[in-house]
Every structure is written in C-alpha cells, then in structure tokens.
C-alpha cells in the first residue's frame, strides 16, 4: 500500500515572472469580460462577435459600419423620441446589444444594463427595431463573422435628445 501524500495547509504561491501595471491588468480584465460576453450570447457559435472582439484586420471596416449604424439609430430615435424622456429634467442611460445579420436584418436585441425604467428600455429597443433593415455588413467582415453585435450606451436627455456611445 502506498504511503498517503501529505498536503500542505499553506501552499506556496509562485511570484509572477513579470511586473504587471494596473493599466495592463485593467486591459486584461476588459478583454476577458468581452470574451465572456461574446460566449454568453451563443457559446457554440464563435461567428457571432462583438465589434470590439474582431481581429485587427477587420476593425476598420467594423468601425465605419458602426458609425453609420449609430447615426441612423440616433436620427430615428430623435424623430421618434420617447414621451417619457420629454419630461423636463429627464435623464436616462442604458446599454443595448444589437446583433446584426449579414443582410442588415436584426438577429437579436438585448438590454444589457437597464436604465431602471422599463418604458425607456423598451422605447430604446423599439428605436433599434424601427431602423431595420440596416446596411448589409461589409463583405470583408463575413470572413470572420455571421452576426455583428454592436454594444452601445444610450443617453436620453430632455435637452439634447438621444446620443449613443461605446
């Protein structure tokens, strides 16, 4: 019978081989968060990607597409401004993820971070739906993806209307 192995109650930790800055750690955490979010949408299909998780070679095309998408959404949103957001002094912020198919149709829409006001969250999703169809995805992106997920923070204000940002 082999002798039982002893396990130390206080394992020794190896020191990291290189010094990590706070900036490096924050970037690594951010990258991990994007990867996890991307997998959460559809873990079996890696061709559904957030715009910020595309390869460097496709970032330029995606950025140009997203700017056009964003301009359309803001234009539609300001023309169809939610009644709730017209209240004097009103401000609301939420984050929406919108998945766009290659033909510009809507694959998915999800409120990732609520404004705390269900009516405002629903109004923002309706604005995205009103914009369909969007421009088709650039052909170059289709080498890497089947669905482009655009994640944006929406800001509603009674003074400035709708604006979106990364």
Short characterization:
The chain has 166 residues and is of the alpha+beta class. The protein has helices at 22-41, 56-79, 118-130, and strands at 48-50, 91-100, 106-113, 147-157, 161-165.
What is the CATH third-level topology name? Fusion Protein Consisting Of Minor Coat Protein, Glycine Rich Linker, Tola, And A His Tag, Chain: A, Domain 2
Principal-axis shape equals globular
Q: What count of domains describes the coordinates?
A: 1
Based on CA atoms alone, the radius of gyration comes out at 21 Å
Distance between the termini: 62 Å
Which CATH class is shown?
A: Alpha Beta
Q: Tell me the fraction of residues in β-strands, as a range.
A: 15-25%
- What is the helix content? 25-40%
What is the chain-wise order of helices and strands? Answer: HEHEEHEE
Number of strands: 5
| Individual helix count | 3
Question: Can you characterise this structure?
Answer:
The chain is α+β, with helices and mostly antiparallel strands and 166 residues long. It has a single domain, classed as Fusion Protein Consisting Of Minor Coat Protein, Glycine Rich Linker, Tola, And A His Tag, Chain: A, Domain 2, CATH 3.30.1150. Helix content is 34%, strand content 22%. The protein has helices spanning 22-41, 56-79, 118-130, and strands at 48-50, 91-100, 106-113, 147-157, 161-165. A hairpin with a 3-residue loop joins β4 and β5. The chain starts with 21 loop residues before the first helix and ends with a strand.
């Amino acid at each position: 019978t082999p002798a039982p192995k002893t396990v130390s109650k206080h394992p020794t930790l190896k020191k990291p081989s290189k010094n990590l800055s706070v900036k490096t750690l924050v970037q690594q955490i951010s990258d991990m968060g994007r990867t996890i979010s991307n997998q959460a949408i559809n873990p079996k299909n890696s061709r559904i990607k957030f715009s910020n998780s595309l390869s460097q070679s496709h970032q330029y095309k995606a950025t140009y597409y997203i700017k056009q998408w964003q301009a359309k959404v803001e234009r539609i949103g300001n023309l169809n401004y939610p009644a709730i957001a017209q209240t004097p002094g009103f401000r609301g912020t939420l984050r929406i993820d919108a998945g766009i198919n290659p033909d510009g149709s809507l694959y998915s829409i999800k409120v990732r971070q609520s404004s705390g006001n269900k009516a405002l969250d629903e109004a923002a999703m309706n604005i995205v739906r009103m914009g369909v169809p969007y421009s088709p995805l650039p052909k170059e992106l289709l080498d890497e993806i089947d669905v482009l997920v655009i994640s944006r923070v929406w800001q509603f204000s009674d003074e400035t209307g709708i604006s979106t940002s990364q």
